[in-house]
Amino acid sequence: MQTLTVALAQIAPRLGMFDANLARHHELIEEARVRGADLVVFPELGLTGYLLQDLAAEVAIRLDDPRLAGLAAATEDLSVVVSFVEESADHRLFIAAALLEDGRIRHVHRKLFLPTYGLFDERRFFAAGDLLRATPSRLGAGVGIAICEDFWHLTVPQLLALDGAQILINVSSSPGRDLAATNEVGLGTATSWRTLMRTYAQLTTSIVIFCNRVGVDESISFWGGSEVIAPSGRPLFGAPLFEEGLFTVEVPLADLRRERLSLPLLRDERPELQVRELTRIVAERAGLAQDSTADDLAETGLDVALGDAVREPIGFRRGGGK
Amino acid sequence: MSAIAGADGAAMFDLPDELAIDTDVARQVIGQFIRGQLRQAGFERAVLGLSGGIDSALVAFLVAEAIGADQLLCVLMPYRTSSDASRTDALVVVEQLGTASELVDISPMVDGYFATALASQPDAPPLRRGNFMARQRMAVLYDRSATWGGLVVGTGNKTESLIGYTTLFGDSACAFNPIGDLYKSQVRQLAAAIGVPDQIIRKAPSADLWPGQTDESEADFSYPVLDRLLFWRIDKRRSDEEMVELGFDPALVARVDRLIATSEFKRQVPPIAKLGPRTAGVDYLYPRRRPGSAAQPR
Fold first, then answer.
1. Looking at beta carbons, which residues of chain A come within 8 Å of B284?
2. Which domain holds residue B105?
3. CB contact, 8 Å: B277 with chain A?
4. Which one of A89, A205, A251, B244 has the lowest number of neighbouring Cβ atoms within 10 Å?
5. Are A283 and A219 in a shared domain?
């Protein structure tokens, strides 16, 4: 496959209306097939809508749900990424994205980072995933799937790339905010995301595919602006803000090899260095070693030295220092 | 601070630089918001109270742009002391947009209440009368909401909400509000961009509860200063010291802080005593509209 045809399904899911959204997915998969797509990407929680709150449990599906199998069945000679609320056998609810290929479920990613600050309240309603794996795919290159906030943590694109992903797919329900006239594209959120995606594409020398929804849930408007970025960090396509549509993009796969040979950042990565230093930082945070950036007389597990008045250790054990 | 000019080239208002928004994006977001709110609720029409002031005029333009003028009913609800200019300006908006409109004189309802129910206190203070008028208008709007078959669209802005210059269950009552996160200066900027007539943008904002009343004389501030203060204090979380460094008078900052704190209750839904296993708004949390709740599913 020399050229990958990506179809970005920038849809406005109906909140809580699983069957209506499922029907729309089937329609768009067929339309994308007719338009020659190799890969179709739907946004985060495209099958359910985003601001579910207590509805999450009512629209959740298990991975053996026949409706998911039905979607998978529609993917002969096609790769499709869909997103939904996944209920595990032990009844935890995850925000999940599945890669469906050739009639079956190829891979499932559970959202790792659940924003619970500002306008977000995800941790109240969902469990965080524990696994991050790249997956081989019929597209001829490794695929890494992430969901929205996952991409606001440097580790996610980096680990996916080190694990063999050459195509990084982020599916999002990103709420638009900050209309300051000084923003590059008239929307603060869009400006931030564009910076992230170009940076990740360049630093991981990977193709970055971003599919963000449009439409409104309650107070929140989702801004769309789905994109495909080349491994050089150069944008290949940007969908319009706020407009629903199925957008197809031709992505030259040969650029991956060229870019990785000319800019061998991944070859030069030092995962063993990261493991060593992260092991130390984790130990320091857990009070198992003296924090190297703490005050001189701080007890292990704390980073501020207590005043002279305090004689008895209150931390984990008496600190080193002197 | 930039001066924004009208069609005649003369300055209409001052727009603080940090408050300037991308009005094209704002119109896209608000249009999508209005359509989304109506669709989720299963409605196609909207109704609003049109005062002749800039806030409700802007919302009328935004709703007409989002769903078409023929889907909007503008209700003019003057009291006998309301200024004629307000009504004239409101009718200009109705005519320019081509929306349906109705005139409901609230004087008999308001005067009837104060004359009979409160015969022993005929001289109710203006604030009390003003609040009662705002709630009468709310009652009329919700009645017309049923007859017109449309949702009530809110017209309050962020500045007045933050300082509590609103009547609880009065002018702040609505099904949804497209401009409640825009400061007055941003309302003016958006109004100029969308084509609200210059004379409406230009005139001094007023609750029009008694002759000659204006927001800025009543509260003793100017909107550009107050908007900047609120922006840095609330949106940008600046401390007391940082506000002084930005050039704000500490006494004004303290006064506005008090207004914000004392009006917090107006911006929230009333608390319910927690007694049962699941309590609305506490641990029974659903979207306002969900499958099965729409009035007329489409």
1. 54
2. 11-212
3. no
4. A89
5. no
Would you call B36 and A176 a contact, using CB atoms and an 8 Å cutoff?
A: no
User: What pLDDT is attached to residue B207?
Assistant: 81
If asked whether residues A301 and A177 sit together in one domain, one would say no
Contact A86, A80 (CB under 8 A): no
For chain A, say whether B236 makes contact (Cβ under 8 Å): no
Per the CB < 8 A criterion, the answer to whether A297 and A321 are in contact is yes
Indicate which CATH number applies to the domain containing B68.
3.40.50.620
Structural domain total, chain B: 1
Residue B189 lies in a domain: yes
Alpha carbon distance A167, A143 (integer Å): 5
Q: Which residues of chain B have pLDDT under 50?
A: 296-298
Same domain, residue pair A94 and A234:
yes
pLDDT given at position A287: 87
A211 is catalytic: no
Sheet holding B100-103, edge to edge: B100-103, B72-76, B45-49, B150-152
Angle (CA) B1-B7-B12 rounded to 5° is 35
Cα separation, A110 vs A247, in Å, equals 26
Nearest to A95 by CA among A196, A154, A192, A172: A172
Nearest CB neighbour to A16, from listed B21, B25, B287: B287
Place of tokens 């305090």: A310
What tens-digit pLDDT sequence spans chain A (322 residues)?
689 999 999 999 999 999 999 999 999 999 999 999 999 999 999 999 999 999 999 999 999 999 999 999 999 999 999 999 999 999 999 999 999 999 999 999 999 999 999 999 999 999 999 999 999 999 999 999 999 999 999 999 999 999 999 999 999 999 998 888 887 777 888 999 999 999 999 999 999 999 999 999 999 999 999 999 999 999 999 999 999 999 999 999 999 999 999 999 999 999 999 999 999 999 999 888 888 888 888 888 888 887 765 566 666 555 444 3
Residues A104/A60, Cβ–Cβ less than 8 Å:
no
DSSP for residue A148: G
pLDDT of residue A322: 39
Residue B32: which of A51, A180, A216 has the nearest Cβ?
A216
Question: Chain A within 8 Å of B7 (Cβ-Cβ)?
Answer: no
Predicted complex ipTM: 0.88
Q: Is A169 exposed, middle or buried (0-12, 13-18, 19+ CB in 10 A)?
A: buried
Minimal C-alpha gap between B129 and chain A (Å): 33
In terms of domains, do A316 and A207 share one? no
Q: A275 and A242 share a domain?
A: no
Q: How far is A53 from chain B (nearest CA, A)?
A: 6
**Residue A26 shares a structural domain with residue A134:** yes
Instruction: Compute the nearest-CA separation of B222 from chain A (Å).
Output: 22
Residue B39 counted as domain residue:
yes
Q: How many domains does chain A have?
A: 2
The closest alpha carbon to A78, from A137, A143, A166, A164, belongs to A137
Cβ–Cβ below 8 Å for A15 and B288 = no
Q: Which domain holds residue A305?
A: 270-322
Is the minimum CB–CB distance between B267 and chain A shorter than 8 Å? no
Alpha helices in chain A (DSSP H): 18-34, 56-59, 66-73, 122-125, 155-162, 188-204, 254-262, 271-285
Chain B residue with CA closest to A175: the answer is: B29
